[in-house]
Amino acid sequence: MTGRVDVAVVGAGIIGLSIAWRCAQRGLSVSVHDTGAGNAWGVAAGMLAPVGESTFGHEHLTGLLVEGSRRWPAFAAELAALTGVDVGYRDEGTLTVALTADDVAGADRLWDHQEAAGLRLTRLAPSELRDWEPALSPRVRRGAHAPDDRQVDPRRVVAALRTLVPVTEAPPDARTTVVAAGCGTAALTGLPIRPVKGQVLRLRGDAGTLRHVIRGYADGRHVYLVPRADGEIVVGATEEERADAAVTAGGVAELLRAALDLVPELAECELAEAAVGHRPGTPDNAPVIGRLPGRADVVVASGHHRHGVLLAPITADIVADEITGTPAPEAWSPRRFA
Amino acid sequence: MTGRVDVAVVGAGIIGLSIAWRCAQRGLSVSVHDTGAGNAWGVAAGMLAPVGESTFGHEHLTGLLVEGSRRWPAFAAELAALTGVDVGYRDEGTLTVALTADDVAGADRLWDHQEAAGLRLTRLAPSELRDWEPALSPRVRRGAHAPDDRQVDPRRVVAALRTLVPVTEAPPDARTTVVAAGCGTAALTGLPIRPVKGQVLRLRGDAGTLRHVIRGYADGRHVYLVPRADGEIVVGATEEERADAAVTAGGVAELLRAALDLVPELAECELAEAAVGHRPGTPDNAPVIGRLPGRADVVVASGHHRHGVLLAPITADIVADEITGTPAPEAWSPRRFA
């Protein structure tokens, strides 16, 4: 691609590609540039969990997460129809489970909090839990089903998007530059975006070992288990305020211990992959979407922290709106960090 | 290499290469053929542990293990001098430690057993343990130091041997064929040698985190920790009666849990490798060294189970003796399985 384009997107992850796709659909000429930095999508489990992610201290995000989630079914369906790629969208809902008495106490408070926010949950007795998910340990004491928490496979989503939006080596001259470079956004914009390290495992077992995404609290450890149709089970994730890319003995041990406490038969699964990603975190844990102060030709879309996959479709819509004349919401503007 | 050689060794692992080297030193023409099967040395930690390996039910092996160990200092020194390769021979001795009251009870019985066999041990109080090995958890209750249990790095040993003994594609015509093919020996000879799967981790941390090899009993789990001079720490090993090569969630979880229970600061180490090897096991857990019944031109050297590295030098000597006219000991002969 040569010459001036309408939109140059810096960052070829799930956010950048989604933006490029949506902009192109509005008739804009678009290029996408891969920075090499920012790889959170490649490690992410792909939970679309407005309920499970509505935890204490994140009330300001709930509305965005819910609306972001609402846009996923159509986004996934359109992407699959256009590309023929099965992006792994699954809507069996998510089970949140608690192992010890302390875990139950914490989960109960969390479920009360989520219900108070208007989110749908069905509390389940231990006997019901085993009907829903036979592989759960008999030690698991309590659980709740969130029908609106779903999943997608981020690697498949990105593969599909890449068939629609070619990625170029260097960004051309553009009327508007969109910086969607994950943790690389800080260096490009000066915004206070920091890496939050996450270690994630991928197990390989029999498809059907788990029927639902499991979010578990096990003896004070938090873990999620995300089963794919092909037998892959994603186990995540540590949350560490550091930038290194090392898979550590401690990180893997904590994840496996919690996973096996909740679902003992996972012990027989192959440990197929252990990887590290870096979530782009912001001081208020909310994303940064909008014009960069003092740079009317630059739009930022980053800082999605744990929610990059969930918020990719809505972020793409907001950015395409902004570029075509409908201002982005003030709440996520980079101006709040100016 | 073409034409008829004196000795063709089938198997290019630590046993086969050691045999080829020792035979060549006696003036025999030798070739080594890599079968591709048998990789136990590539995963093995390289403990040279006649004391630690003298466990209940293995009394018939103690003499061989002790004599095998005695041959290592000269073997390592000669190999290093000839090749310039540092083979990682270290003689600080090994600490065996026990975590819980049950672990202590088991370890005490084992130490009594080893001392009764005439093996050297120094029992250590908890306070002394921390002087010997400051990184040990304060929870570790008891330990003993075995000064005669040492270590070597099997990957370096094999690298050194390979500079001395070239490995060929196919075995040439030979006066004597030595089958040293690890688990592949069963298919080649019909001997009852079975794979015993072992999962082994390699951590990477600061050199000096551990001063000694640690053999630990931690809440019923057995683990060993073998520190190298370059900061690698080998953590092993599962012992499973199966032939598959999968690194499993359960295997890794058990090893890490035991390792971190004993030495908590290992949590910060990088988990650099998780691998599977297969020990060649025999019905009586003793190696098979000697002429194959009915095949006077075939000598077997396999079935070393957990002791392939420790017994490589003595096995090489026994096989070179056998080929040059000094019969191998009857105790390890393949005839016992005829």
Automatic annotation (TrEMBL), chains A, B:
Residue ranges annotated for the FAD dependent oxidoreductase domain, each copy included: 6-163, 174-321
GO molecular function: oxidoreductase activity
Keywords: Oxidoreductase
Superkingdom as given in the UniProt entry: Bacteria
Protein name, entry field: Glycine oxidase ThiO
PANTHER family registered for this protein in UniProt: GLYCINE OXIDASE (PTHR13847:SF289), SARCOSINE DEHYDROGENASE-RELATED (PTHR13847)
Entry-linked SUPFAM superfamilies: FAD-linked reductases, C-terminal domain (SSF54373), FAD/NAD(P)-binding domain (SSF51905)
Pfam families: DAO
GO cellular component: cytoplasm
Gene that specifies this protein: thiO
